[in-house]
Amino acid sequence: xxxxxxxxxxxxxxxxxxxxxxxxxxxxxxxxxxxxxxxxxxxxxxxxxxxxxxxxxxxxxxxxxxxxxxxxxxxxxxxxxxxxxxxxxxxxxxxxxxxxxxxxxxxxxxxxxxxxxxxxxxxxxxxxxxxxxxxxxxxxxxxxxxxxxxxxxxxxxxxxxxxxxxxxxxxxxxxxxxx
Length: 179
Known about the structure:
- With 179 residues, the protein is mainly alpha-helical.
- It has two domains: 1-92, RNA polymerase sigma factor, region 2, helix turn helix motif (Rna Polymerase Sigma Factor, Chain: A, Orthogonal Bundle); 109-179, Winged helix-like DNA-binding domain superfamily/Winged helix DNA-binding domain (Arc Repressor Mutant, subunit A, Orthogonal Bundle).
- It is built from eight helices and no strands.
- Helix 2 crosses helix 3, helix 2 (18-39) packs across helix 6 and helix 4 crosses helix 7.
């Protein structure tokens, strides 16, 4: 969805158009769910997504269009909902990432090797700091731009790019030690 379409939908949503909300929701749901799945336990994922959208609907009048757009605003809400869930549950973050599936067409040996590689990346990812994990989750998993991530994290885009670069370098370093 391009920026102009999203801007029109946000304005329609402000006017109470339920179809506009549905289109906005369908556009962001896969990324929002993936982000939540990496931050909270499986039984809380749907609650986090639903609470995020509920707060967005209730607070749409406070949204002001900026270059980072609607998605950054929405993921900022999601961060606060996740933090609340973690406080209530006593968790600081989910301990294991969502399992990655090997392609079904792969040979058995290739599939086993791929699953081993995925398990290694998940294990090493868990060794990154919470801040490193979060910036990578927002940039890579949620697919936000540096500007959108900056708004969600209340940082500058340059700081996000630097944090992402450092997090990736740290992950590469851990992978090199692993080999």
